[in-house]
């Protein structure tokens, strides 16, 4: 069986902890190389994760003809230049979220990938969990009535790590880009539409490069439906989602990370659906490989990718400008 051969640009913790093990666990992929600015660092990383090749520069990895695709877990401001360079080297690209700093960057990235005939996908791994498709079917079937609203949260506390790259504003730091993007993407996924406006209030911390360390927002969709969300890098941890309908509600206590159960609640009746906890990073890799190796369309279109960062950027703009941002 032919497998998609991956190179990893950088030794970021998300790659080491989650994405690389997911690719290695998948059925249609293998990790064959990793690159770092330091060959020693790349070599140590490769040895620890069982990766056969290590490079002392990203350019060397991109020049390797034995690599089909690259995963980019670099800081947000580097997503665009390295995606473009990877595309021009003939590599397919899975890039960490958010795909870019704004929609214009994303459009440029897509244009280059289309020109070079390579694929580009954004690494929202949770969207590959089977439960989200199942929940969408249940909503469409009217199991909780008409959708009245969605509430999503993603928070954690990393505030003492003052050297963290998330605290560099110019690099695309802040909680909205880092974790607020998850409930925003989930609402778009579940409603199958794009928001029309967003209003966000945020706490910008002088101790952390002036980035938004906490944000709360209202994102407007059609028919009076809204997403209310909050996100933080300086609060107790949560990653939850509630879909409120006229006749019931669907609750995901671990919406983006962790156990893949969910509940349907109607009055006093609570139905708990226990899905198999398949590794979403492996599912993401196999879905990408299907497109790269077999020509299957990407699960999420380039239009979806561009609209996603447009929504996330508008949420940040609203907080910075203290005004409601119109999206359509």
From TrEMBL:
Q: What is this protein called?
A: Deoxyfructose oxidoreductase
A Pfam family per the record: GFO_IDH_MocA_C3
Q: Does the keyword Isomerase apply?
A: no
Family membership, please give it. Belongs to the Gfo/Idh/MocA family.
InterPro entries with a match to the protein in the record? Gfo/Idh/MocA-like_OxRdtase_N, Gfo/Idh/MocA_domain, GFO_IDH_MocA-like_dom, NAD(P)-bd_dom_sf
Q: Which UniProt keywords apply?
A: Oxidoreductase
Magnesium found in the keyword field: no
Taking every annotated instance into account, which residue ranges of this chain make up the domain GFO/IDH/MocA-like oxidoreductase? 132-251
Source species, please? Lederbergia ruris
Residues forming the Gfo/Idh/MocA-like oxidoreductase N-terminal domain are 4-122
Which domain of life, per UniProt?
Bacteria
Q: Which Gene3D superfamilies match?
A: Dihydrodipicolinate Reductase, domain 2 (3.30.360.10), NAD(P)-binding Rossmann-like Domain (3.40.50.720)
SUPFAM superfamilies recorded: Glyceraldehyde-3-phosphate dehydrogenase-like, C-terminal domain, NAD(P)-binding Rossmann-fold domains
